[in-house]
Design a protein that fits this description.
This protein is mostly helical. The chain has 8 helices and no strands. The longest helix has 26 residues.
Length: about 200
Amino acid sequence: MKKYVIEAIGTMVLVLVYGLTKDPLAIGLVLATLIYGGMYVSGGHFNPAVTFAYYIRKDINLKVFLGYTVSQILGSFAASGVLLMVTSSIFLAQPPTASTVSQHIAGEILMSFLLIFSYLSLLNYKGKGTKRIHALGVGLTLTTALLISNPMSGGYLNPVLSIGTSFIDFFAINNKPFSHIPLFTLAPLTGSILAVLLDWYIKD
C-alpha cells in the first residue's frame, strides 16, 4: 500500500509544481527530490508512461501497473483541485497554437523517449555508486526535455497532466477540455515503447 500512496503524493506534488511555476528547472529538481524519497518504496515513477515502460520490461506486474496508474491519476486530481483553490484557475495541458500537429506529436514522443530512457539507464544502473545521484540525472533530463519540447508541444511528457487536470476542469469550469488527452497520453506511451526497445537492444 505504501508504494501506491507514494506514487499518488509524488504525482500530486509534481503536477502542483507544473501548474504553479511552469519552470523546467524547478520541475526537474522536484522530480529528482521525489525520486530520492520514493525510489526505494515505489521506484519513483510519478508518470504512467514511466510505469508503462517498467511493465513492458516485466519489472512490475499488471496489478502494480494498474495500481500505480490509478494512484498517479488520483494524485493529479488532487493537485488540480488544489490549483483551482489557490489560483482560481485550472492548469490545463494544451499544445502551442504556433506549432503544428506533427510538431506536437514529435515533441511529446521524442522527449518522453529521452526522459524514460534516462529512467531505464540511470535508475537501473548496476555499477558502483549510489542511485540517489542518478535521480538528479533523471531530474535534469526532464528539465532538458521540457526546454526542448515546450515550443513544440507545450512540454508535458506525462499523461496525468492532461487526464487529471481535464476532468477537474470539466467538473469545476465545464470548458469541455478533453480534446488534447489523446495527444498527451498516446505520445508519451509511444516514447515509452521506443525507450524500452532501445534499452533492450543495447543491453542484449
